[in-house]
C-alpha cells in the first residue's frame, strides 16, 4: 500500500517578463478594455497621453464582450495582427 500526502507539492511556475521596448517609436499600440467601469475613461486618458507624447502613433483599441470571460479568439487575433504591444486595463 502506498500513502500519498493530501497536501501535495507543486513547483512554482516561472515564465518571466516580456522584454520592454526601449521606445514606442514605430510600434503599434493595442488597448484592450475589459468593459468594467471606469476602464473606458482610463483608456481615453491613455490614448490622449500617448498621442500627446508620440504624435502619429498608431493605436488599435478593442474591448472584451464580457468582463468575467477571457477575450474572444477573434479579439486576440486582432491584437496579434495589429499590435506590437498591448495595454490591458482592469477596472473596479
Describe the structure.
The chain has 92 residues and is α/β, with parallel strands linked by helices. The protein has a domain at 31-89. Helices cover 27% and strands 18% of the residues. The protein contains two helices and three strands; from the N terminus they run βαβαβ. A three-stranded parallel β-sheet has the order 2-1-3, with helices on both faces. Strand 1 (28-33), helix 1 and strand 2 form a beta-alpha-beta unit. The longest helix has 15 residues, at 39-53. The radius of gyration is 19 Å and the shape is elongated. The N and C termini lie far apart (51 Å). The model has no long low-confidence stretch (mean pLDDT 88).
SSE order, as H and E? EHEHE
Helix content: 25-40%
Counted beta strands: 3
Name the poorly predicted regions. none
Secondary structure class reads: alpha/beta
Percent in strands: 15-25%
Continuous helix count: 2
Lateral arrangement of strands in the main beta sheet: 2-1-3
Q: Using the CA coordinates, give the radius of gyration.
A: 19 Å
Oligomeric state: single chain
Q: Categorize the overall geometry.
A: elongated
End-to-end distance, in Å? 51 Å
Overall pLDDT metric: 88
Main sheet summary = 3 strands, parallel
Amino acid at each position: 500500500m502506498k500513502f500519498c500526502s493530501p497536501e501535495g507539492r507543486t513547483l512554482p511556475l516561472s515564465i518571466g517578463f516580456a522584454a520592454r521596448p526601449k521606445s514606442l517609436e514605430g510600434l503599434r499600440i493595442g488597448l484592450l478594455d475589459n468593459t468594467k467601469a471606469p476602464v473606458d475613461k482610463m483608456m481615453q486618458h491613455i490614448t490622449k497621453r500617448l498621442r500627446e507624447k508620440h504624435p502619429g502613433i498608431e493605436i488599435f483599441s478593442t474591448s472584451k464582450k464580457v468582463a468575467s470571460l477571457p477575450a474572444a479568439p477573434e479579439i486576440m487575433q486582432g491584437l496579434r495582427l495589429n499590435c506590437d504591444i498591448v495595454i490591458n486595463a482592469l477596472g473596479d
